[in-house]
Write a sequence for this structure.
């Protein structure tokens, strides 16, 4: 299994970034997918989830209205469009397949760093 997140970088407060996650080695089209993030010294927190068919998405309150999760099952890819970035969005972002219980299925990839400056 590979979960390769990319697209992170440095952005100014109020700016935008689009993260991509290329997945392989498992049945992506049958898997609910999630983005999560971890800031230094803090716990991993769920950011957004998308059902396997792409029709249903959920978001953490702290990103609602700013972030959008999407996927293309033909490309085994899930994206996270991040708008109106805030300094507190600074973290390393990861993707993974997620169970209905909330548990993540696979070992984490390397993630992609997002740094937002004021």
């Amino acid at each position: 299994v590979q979960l390769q997140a990319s697209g992170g970088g440095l952005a100014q407060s109020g700016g935008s970034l689009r993260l991509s996650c290329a997945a392989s080695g498992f049945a992506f089209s049958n898997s609910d997918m999630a983005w999560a993030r971890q800031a230094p010294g803090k716990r991993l927190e769920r950011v957004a989830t998308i059902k396997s068919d792409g029709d249903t998405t959920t978001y953490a309150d702290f990103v609602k209205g700013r972030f959008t999760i999407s996927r293309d099952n033909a490309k085994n890819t899930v994206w996270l469009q991040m708008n109106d970035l805030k300094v507190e969005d600074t973290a390393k972002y990861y993707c993974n397949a997620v169970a209905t219980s909330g548990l993540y299925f696979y070992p984490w990839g390397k993630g992609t760093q997002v740094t937002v400056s004021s």
